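Would you mind giving me a polypeptide sequence along with per-residue structure tokens?
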Amino acid sequence: MTVQNSDRGHGQCIDNDAQSYPKRRCYCFAGHHGPNCMQELPVANITFKPEDYQVKPSKSSNFTFH
């Protein structure tokens, strides 16, 4: 097996030395997907602000719902 960067550098592909398809499998870094990890996902940083939500009590004291 050979590990290499994907064609665009947004993941790693593993050549599994197969005689039929798929001959390699790519694992994309966060924010990318698709063939050779070439498609970018719109990833947003979302900050949770508890003051923006109502707190709901639960029957169990182990949980807090916002």
